[in-house]
Amino acid sequence: MAALLDSAERVFATQGYAAATMTAIAAGAGASIGSLYQFFPGKEAVARGVLERCFGQLYAELDALAGQPVDAAGLADALSTLMLRHATARAAGMAMLDAGSAGQSGVRAEIRAGLRE
Question: Where DNA binds (residue ranges) (predicted)?
């Protein structure tokens, strides 16, 4: 399943969420379309998987940061570095944020839910 999510991230980042297809995601992972549908019933489910993985990694790093003794300036610096790194490394997440602003309500709801947790 990791290969499918890796492929989905690449496809969302290069083609954008709206233009991405399940066929392109499966092909990018070297998997059959049936294999993709075995794990994900549709593109929104794939997007949810990508977002869950992205947010999971971000939250793990935030938790690690929370356990470090730093002053306010150090914390602000560490947070800005962390957020910038995730924003640039996760182009797929940015593509899905764009999709959310373009009216893809299911994706936008997933992003909001992830941010609230």
Answer: 21-40
26 near 46, Cβ under 8 Å? no
pLDDT, tens digit, for every residue of 68-105?
A: 888 888 888 988 888 888 777 776 666 665 555 444 55
Predicted TM-score (pTM) of this structure: 0.70
The count of residues in the chain is: 117
Q: What is the pLDDT of residues 29-50, one digit of tens each?
A: 999 999 999 999 999 899 889 8
Domain count, the chain: 1
Q: What 3-state DSSP class applies to 74? A: helix
CATH code of the domain covering residue 13: 1.10.357.10
62: containing domain:
2-116
What is d(CA 103, CA 109) in angstroms, rounded to the nearest whole number?
A: 11
End-to-end CA distance of the chain: 24
